[in-house]
């Protein structure tokens, strides 16, 4: 059997990437392909925890949220991640995997609450744990939730799966002359204000010495290549 480079990872899945080519929402073929990528890695025996963003749903409600109280809008964003988490867990079930959704916001009729020892138990049992509702607090992002949960569960790496294939000198969707880093330190990413992740997430991972690898979820086989130790995307390190 091929040997994985990591025992436990925190995978941050982009909510926006779930839209595929649609304007918002969840594209069926896209979620099935993402889950197939996750399955490939789970079959290597890697313990997998996942945080998923909410941009695909939040984008759809954003015009109506204009002028809203920030904290209220943020709670709506967190609820969007719960919807994505449920969809992801169900798509995993359909592909024969066992996933548990744990929410940072109490909605016990829908999903169980986040309890760290329980999450660790699920991971040790080989179940995939999906952390929903971000950090449970407004004014944060799911990237910060990934840094936080990754630190709490003792993940060896945070894998940020997004629509771009790494960290660039500027947003590659806005600046065609931007160049990709194969690796960059946390301090440099923060001081250069690189917007691929928020500074809170970078700072938390830096302080916990938890590396981040940013890669494209659209690129076939990228997740498996990273887990097998190949150099893919951008490594953000101490
Ligand atoms: N320096 C940069 N390098 C790479 N991408 C960048 C950079 N600056 C900005 N970006 C943008 O950041 C985006 C990825 O981060 P973003 O938080 O927006 O998405 P996500 O976390 O993947 O989505 P979601 O919030 O739905 O989970 C990229 O699509 C890219 O356009
Ligand atoms: O800890 C958190 C996480 C998220 N939010 C809100 O949810 C949306 C969607 O998350 P993304 O990371 O952008 O995908 C985010 O814009 C926040 O409004 C939050 O408040 N706290």
UniProtKB/TrEMBL annotation:
The protein's Enzyme Commission number: 2.7.4.22
What are the subcellular locations of this protein?
Answer: Cytoplasm
Keyword Cytoplasm attached: yes
Q: Name one GO cellular component term.
A: cytosol
Which InterPro entries did the record assign?
Answer: AceGlu_kinase-like_sf, Asp/Glu/Uridylate_kinase, Uridylate_kinase, Uridylate_kinase_bac
Q: Quaternary structure per UniProt?
A: Homohexamer.
HAMAP family under this entry?
Answer: PyrH_B
Q: Which family is this protein grouped under?
A: Belongs to the UMP kinase family.
The protein here is known as Uridylate kinase
Origin species:
Noviherbaspirillum pedocola
